[in-house]
Amino acid sequence: MSDLPSSPEQLRDQIAAVLDEPADAIGLDDDLMDAGLDSIRLMTLIERWRAGGVQVGFVELAERPTVAGWWALLAAGSPAR
């Protein structure tokens, strides 16, 4: 089973899990760094997504630290399902 999110909501669920926060506490346009996401947690998510075949980098995610921004990057880099 792939750990790639299939929707922005699933992406938000994954982020909330690493932050140990309820998903509904994270808005699609909230700054994830302000919400407590640090580089180690970000790398955990990146490795999970890379294992699913998405080539996305730390810098590009750090430059767009929102669920909406990440969803755009992941959707563009996702393998066909």
From TrEMBL:
Keywords: Phosphopantetheine, Phosphoprotein. Pfam families: PP-binding. Residues 2-78 form the Carrier domain. The keyword Phosphoprotein applies. The keyword Phosphoprotein applies. Pathway: Siderophore biosynthesis. InterPro entries: ACP-like_sf, PP-bd_ACP. PROSITE patterns: CARRIER (PS50075). This is Carrier domain-containing protein.
